[in-house]
């Protein structure tokens, strides 16, 4: 929470309250206001004599003096974020000291929206707030992971169990086909880069640059969901905005907190594969069916299956997770600070996979005088990620282990790992997954700096100016060496069999400057006006370089300095920019009728001159019914507010220079010429989303129950899409604005304090239904995406009337009991199965998803139990395209599912017969599509705060112990290991594909937190 | 106070407007905008290199079509595309069809671009313009030649206009072939025998008069116009610009060897490496061994009559096991091995074209002479035939010995009407629809005027 700002608003609000002529001053009351939690003095608290205009505000030391009418008075003490108190002061009393408590109800919490902040009760946009307490015991690497299941309308999918790996966040569904669907992340006012910046593909699983921000430094997260809340971010707001506020110091004595956590990490489950003798039997059957002799192919029972290696067990381990953090915060009236340093070290479940992160934060606030304040925030994080290849990589570790034939062994009789050219090495395409894990070095160093400086100037009464400059700096260095004992370094002829080294660096940074004027005035008793005017300039740069070398003397030399041949490398530089102007008007009448309007104009370097600027207005209305007289009879209802908003947001997240027709370098025999690269489209323009939202906020039973419900309809038109065009044009695609996508949905969340005595029990529940639909595509095209698929073209399709993430394929009707062959639906009835029989077979969008959290606290104990669920989504189990491959090839181990294959006439089963080389029975079809619904016990955490009388004896302020477990239990019908995976990390058109993807991990950890 | 605010705002406003163009119009660093591509003398060579980069891009896929569709290989890997070719289960979704198609039309695009823009290039001699245009026509003709023999009727793309080429129907094969002949004959009159008096690699990596003659010789051979085929072959051999390598191993292991007429060139030890791409010949044949020589092919190439040409493949007992017969095609190496270039025309093919043309014209003795030129070089027993039928039979096998994995087999069997006979004996999955590759499914989806080939 940005304390300065709150303070300033407080002062401002009182300045005009106080500006009236004071009258009837009969006697004086004075006192000091302090904060309950730490005893610090509170400046800027407003004090009002009830029923009058008389009021004042506390000074920098928290003192106040007020002239009040004679007799008994009621004083109202209020401060943003704290519980308002009414104190009756008898005529004899002249000193009133007040201790204020932090807001217990959501209504008084501060919400940061756009470029300013306001109280939750005054919000007329759709905003979800997540306070740091909600994720403090979760073993999450990044805050994006922490959002899972915590807020309605926010869908978070972790792509795999890889530490530091990719996470997809969607707010109210996918709005775009090819521009990014990731929300805009703002940390302390700085737009930050998210996603992957590493250069090298690791088989689908990307790096995640948000994983380097320490979630423990975060105070709270606001998710802005509707147009009125996010249109102030216009240009980049279409996918929602996630506003993150880091912790800041307070005016009190220094508090030091030490936090230690340790745990173990394991896969949630393992695939069930055949053993050697089962596989030999199956492969002999497949070879015989193809009319060949299995003995000649070396498939001999009792010989081939003498070795039976469980490759999965060979490459997996139980990982250790540890995390340490030290924070100090505090300050004086003039200067406040928050300081933190942390270390997180997570061993992956795959051998040699490890993610280590060092983080530091320093936030400072300095008040020069009541007109001038400075603030700064710096978050630095450095990570070292030892990666392993996975998913769609033959030489991956987990992916390689699933596929590898059990006939081979990882070690020889002396315990030495088999390497290429050893007689018992499983040649291409199997390799040795253990060697693939242990021998290469795939080290990625990440550096992320988020830094900002701001100055606040009170220009005049009610008129405030804030200027802010910030940087988001991301750097990754990839230091890689694959020795001659690995598939690439030893096997690939183009590498030469003597090692392969790559070194690459990528830097992306964004400089932002924003200047904002705010004006706050109330007229008469009832009219409150809030104005905001600002501009922002944003400049982003990306720089890359890489070099690779081969032909190393031996495996002791692992850096490119020692490479015999260094002939590949490159460098690149790119930049983009935004220039924006924005304004906002907010008005309310007696806090009963609320009105808002925003407007933002954005110019982007990504569009041509004639379409450069996009304009994004929004309007919103709020009506606090509970203030109306006719609602007086509803005593249980503390607050009831209806809100509605309408507006536009945009998206420009495509590559640079897409509007230009260009040629790029083309090499012939080492000489460089030019070849066509892209078709021009001078009319390329902003993708625009039109959003309508209607919502209701209710607070009942002394604010013990809070309900929020929203209904929305978002329509994105002028979709940015690289439209495939026939290759006869000389090009494969043209960047255009080609269609419409809609998202309609309903969100509901409820928070209830079920019991409030010695046993406190709180339930939080949220559920979201989002219906995504491609409304229209130019030319009525169907666009094919995902993996290329045998027999049918592609695994995914985008077509009008279907959601994004639609699965495409043949419809599998089962196995012909007479022949054992697969039966597919012949849609065009031409008597044969061809690509024209491809059809929609399902989609990856859930019908609904959400989270349920129950928290209990009793005496010093606290317990939270958090479930996450998703229902109605399909998962494409492409792993089974290899593991139940009907004999297409015999280089891959098979799943135990293949035990129920068709074997003789009359067999009724769902798995076709096995015949070597038969691709027909393994065509891409709905045979591989499964229900991916799940209910998962995402987290259980049990904590105990030692009684203060014990801890005080050892000079501590508090001591907390806790244990927690994540992903402990899952209910699903999915036949693979884990439905919560996605091999194409971050993909929009091809989500929910399990292709040898590492399942999620379960973590059990314990920790201790000491406060001095 | 308000004066301060006004000043403040004015300064911010000025900064914003001042930085506007710098922020919003960054210059591209690795791209050339369309209008600047072909304007002056400095642009000629880059565009020429772009043209050859394009024609090179379908070198390997032409070999996949010519050799992998037929009986030389069996599949041994995990890529579905190669599996389909190996097991003769080719579908319209096969991405190799799309790659070949796309790279053919990519080449045609640049050729058409040169055709449309060459006239307006400033400060360049007419001779230089004619040369580049002739090279463009050669490349376009070769691209269409491969296109019609692979896909049958194909769209006739004559301009660079996107709207025209987006919805475009197929033109009969005969009409395209007529255009191919015209282009080649025009190029023939212009292109020199040599670009450089003493730089062999320049003369072999760019199209020369003999490359055009070779294209015309092959063209007329495919058309069954034997006399023309013979005469173009004659003129190449008579020009003595190329001469047979003394050893067949040189053909395999050396770039720009003396018998090459035109080869698609990759530089050695540079970033210009076809190596690990999914269509890189070395990667497919040697690295991944996605396909390996079929048992049927192995039996023929190790025959005594093949002589030293059995070096086309090699055997490694470590590879043997499962469906793997242990043999590997070694005609294409890595850049460092110095033989990753793809030969399009070389003198040995010209001898075989002449032999076949002569045999068909009844000049059996002349045909025998040509065949034995190659037998002698291969240190194999001399052939001996006296009848046309035996001659044609021997020549078919001789093409296997000499030209396998250079993209000929499937096209040869088609033009001699032997495809179904040979392939039915080879694979139980063979169907006569495989006399053409499918039109790529993505083209069918985006161009409504296209029709699919029979059976796909």
Descriptive account of the structure:
The complex is a heterodimer of chains A (1012) and B (456). The longest helix of chain A is centred in the N-terminal third of the chain and has 16 residues, at 3-18. Chain A is globular, with a radius of gyration of 31 Å. Chain A folds into 2 domains: 3-103, Carboxypeptidase-like, regulatory domain (Immunoglobulin-like, Sandwich); 143-150 and 152-158 and 160-165 and 168-249 and 265-273 and 310-805 and 844-873 and 932-945 and 952-1011, TonB-dependent receptor, beta-barrel domain (Maltoporin, Chain A, Beta Barrel), CATH 2.40.170.20. Chain A has 10 helices and 51 strands. Chain A is mainly beta. Chain B is mainly α and 456 residues long. Chain B has a single domain, classed as Serine Threonine Protein Phosphatase 5, Tetratricopeptide repeat (Alpha Horseshoe), CATH 1.25.40. In chain B, 55% of the residues lie in helices and 6% in strands. Chain B has a two-stranded antiparallel sheet with strand order 2-6. The radius of gyration of chain B is 25 Å and the shape is globular. At the A-B interface, strand 25, strand 26, strand 30, strand 31 and strand 38 of A face helix 1, strand 1, helix 2, helix 4 and helix 5 of B.
